[in-house]
Design brief:
Radius of gyration: 23 Å
Number of strands: 18
Shape: globular
Strand content: 15-25%
Number of helices: 17
Strand order of the largest sheet: 8-9-10-1-11-18-12
Oligomer: single chain
Length: 515
């Protein structure tokens, strides 16, 4: 009934929305949440990453095929031994305050960002010196070769390695920057920011796009609209209603139970993609507390997991889901691997036999969930599978902030459910639960052999060697069980059909868009 009542409001104006959505050159959009943290180096929050891709720029960026391309960089050279990297910035780059972008700015920005990022720290461990060599040139000298240099400088994972003016890069990350000055295609209008209500990004007239076409986060980002207003929505149903009424032009995540109604709504289009633009759901496992300190008990979880049933229970339509996928690094992506996949596959009888052969003695599994979201539904299906195997499981429902605080403890919990962008999960270097083995990261798993494989992956000289190592890491992860994956799926975006040339990506992007 709640859905029907809200849908009936579709033709009514929502009082908190400004009425200029249909004005030429202006968009009203609702993203996954409100942008609260504006400092792009200070958080891994996806919403801050979305803000950063519009307001700031990076030296390199990933294109739609997953290839890292130059972005702010015009050209670069590498010495024969791989220890010296010289970079030259494109001419004409400017900050939003009008000052030219310099190599000194970029040096300071990298020095601020790298210690805060797992891949940045890996690169910095190989660094000998980073210096500006001119107004547009800088040199990074290494102690040991680092073949993934460009992958790190152009990674799409938060915190993004965006460039800042030197004066802002000098601000410690712990205090966060308050003045938002980037060099990206949009400029943040601080005077029009209304926390809890709206934020305005306007076209930066002095932005110089690259010559080549835009492709995902790379290429020529040509802005063809005047401004984008980010609207804070109280809930998804309100956003869906506003989209149908034409008071929103774009909504990042549509609620699955509204999809049939939205597909029938006049003027509304849906955008759903596959590959790296999908999401991967995971149940993170706590290795520090019994019974999952025992790897034999952890491995039983693979046989308790029914991905198809989970995605059905969530309500994901067939066209927005992938077949059951056993790859930690996502199916239908460059490092897709099925090594160890025979361990996965829902089989209650096998799970019961496996559990009976372990040292499990009926300890209650504390399964943390958040109220009302798709992660809770996924967890509830998994709990049923675990109970069929003989586990005693207790669901503990809380808000996300409380869950984050609980998972920071080594005891008092055993599992929680979460999902993440595919771009964060497609590599051993960025996958939250594979990359952080033997690190101080909630779950506290440690596999020294896997750690060695990950380091070897970072040193691999070519794609073939990396693919082979990714397969070995996949097999090791299946045996080690830092997490088990509950499905691969798309959460479609919705947009009004007055928008043309909307980039086809899971990340919201408003360059190239015309109205």
């Amino acid at each position: 009934m709640r859905i029907d009542r809200r849908a009936a409001m579709g033709a009514m104006a929502l009082p908190f929305l400004a009425r200029h959505a249909a004005a030429a050159g202006a968009l009203n959009v609702a993203l996954e949440s409100e942008v609260v943290i504006l400092d792009p180096h200070a958080t891994t929050a996806a919403i801050t990453r979305t803000f950063a891709t519009h307001v700031f720029d990076t030296l390199f960026a990933m294109d739609g095929e997953g290839v890292i391309r130059p972005q702010m960089v015009e050209s670069f050279e590498t010495s024969a031994d791989g220890l010296r990297w010289d970079f030259l910035l494109r001419p004409g780059l400017r900050w939003h305050d009008g000052a030219p972008v310099t190599a000194t700015d970029c040096v300071a920005s990298l020095e601020r960002w790298a210690p805060r990022d797992a891949l940045g720290r890996m690169l910095w461990a190989a660094k000998a010196e980073l210096v500006a060599t001119g107004a547009r040139g800088f040199r990074l000298t290494l102690k040991t070769p680092f073949p993934l240099m460009l992958d790190v400088l152009g990674k799409p994972n938060a915190p993004l390695p965006v460039m800042l003016p030197e004066r802002l890069a000098a601000v410690p990350v712990e205090t966060r920057i308050r003045e938002i000055v980037g060099s990206g295609p949009f400029r943040f209008r601080a005077s029009e920011w209304r926390p809890g209500a709206s934020m305005v990004l306007e076209r930066f007239a002095d932005y110089v796009p690259r010559a080549e076409p835009a492709s995902f986060l790379a290429g020529g980002k040509r802005v063809k609209i005047d401004q984008v207003t980010l609207r804070a929505m109280p809930d998804q149903a309100t956003g869906a209603t506003a989209l149908m009424a034409g008071e929103l032009d774009y909504m990042q995540y549509l609620p699955f139970d509204w999809i049939p109604r939205l597909e029938r709504a006049r003027g509304v289009r849906l955008l759903g993609l596959g590959g790296i633009h999908q999401f991967q759901g995971s149940f993170r496992v706590n290795h520090a507390a019994p019974p999952f300190d025992d790897p034999a008990v952890r491995r039983v979880l693979w046989k308790c997991l029914d991905q198809a049933s989970i995605l059905t229970a969530i309500g994901v339509p067939e066209r927005f889901r992938a077949p059951p996928c056993p790859s930690f690094f996502m199916c239908d992506t460059p490092l897709d691997s099925r090594q160890g996949a025979e361990a996965a596959g829902f089989d209650p009888a096998a799970a019961r036999a496996m559990l009976a052969a372990t040292g499990y003695r009926g300890q209650t599994i504390q399964f943390l969930t958040t109220q009302g979201g798709i992660s809770q539904t996924a967890a509830q299906v998994m709990i049923q599978g675990m109970q069929q195997a003989g586990f005693s499981v207790q669901e503990q429902v809380m808000d996300w902030g409380t869950l984050l605080a609980r998972r920071a403890r080594r005891d008092g919990w055993n599992m929680f459910a979460v999902y993440a962008n595919g771009t964060d999960m497609i590599s051993p270097l960025t996958h939250f639960y594979v990359a952080n083995t033997c690190a101080d990261f909630p779950g506290w798993d440690c596999d020294r052999d896997m750690r060695g494989l990950i380091d070897a992956f970072a040193r691999a000289e070519d794609g073939a060697a990396r693919r082979a190592l990714a397969g070995r890491i996949q097999a090791a992860a299946v045996a080690h069980v830092p997490a088990v994956m509950w499905g691969q799926f798309t959460i479609p975006a919705g947009y009004r059909d007055r928008l043309r040339n909307l980039p086809r990506a899971a990340y919201p992007m408003f360059w190239e868009v015309e109205v």
